């Protein structure tokens, strides 16, 4: 019960600001639509604003465009159905919905567009039947334009998506899942029974979800940089985070390889390996706690390095499974260090040396307004400073 309550609190905390934005946008859209259109109840304007904003930060602008596309399809189809049937009724409703969904499917749009097209056709026909007006479609289109416009102002200008923060949240979820998997694997190695092995297999399957989410987030971020106001500023932080996701995907594959090889080891070797796997899980938990913290990354690098060195000192005895497990531990440690910010060559060299002082660089900051030029190169300021001094002389 306590865990469920904590999960609920965390979900509300993460999305609370999005809820506030949607509430304010709904009120603004209602006010604007009510002031611009006379003798009209602008119920759809706030609905359109909320629907357009009710998606991940990087997709809100595209969602507004999809909403408008569906509304236009639906209104046109509804009006055509009314004209062909000579008025409203069951036939007009069926024809309007069928035309709207068929037209949306024909051009290969997203499911949200198909749903909006059908809903718009239904409302156009229903309003024509119940109120006898021929302007229901036009009023709904006006509402949709106002609601989507408010959503675009909120999502692109006032509160643009903080893609770096969104990506790091997804990275933290993936790291937590990897840590859970290694933690379960470590406990399974200690118990060495059938139930724990089955539990480990379950965690192996669960890891596919965050890994797929990582790939999807990377593609969405690139799409957002191209089509949103972020392209007006400095896309370097987002592109750098995309590279970090590539490293994290490799880390996930290394963790899978480690968990798989441990299952094939003998009982004595499994018991010896259990502390190493558990320490790697602890390192991943440390990373997931705060990806914006240099201290957390430094602790993770040092912990991974200590664990890999200690295990590498053992003799493999020429056994292929043991050799593969040693390689898996080294791969996990290397990928953790590279993900934390250490160059690959430095990480490999540190594993070969008994003494190595690795300094993790500060992780890039998270820009608050991505559509403004963010953190320009220092050389630009230096050039201006030197030019000013020359003029003063």
From TrEMBL:
Signal peptide: none
Pfam (any one): FUSC_2
Chief location bin: membrane
Domain of life (superkingdom): Bacteria
Residue span(s) of domain Integral membrane bound transporter: 30-154
Glycoprotein in keyword set: no
Subcellular location as annotated: Membrane
Transmembrane spans: 12-37, 121-138, 144-165
Protein name: FUSC family protein
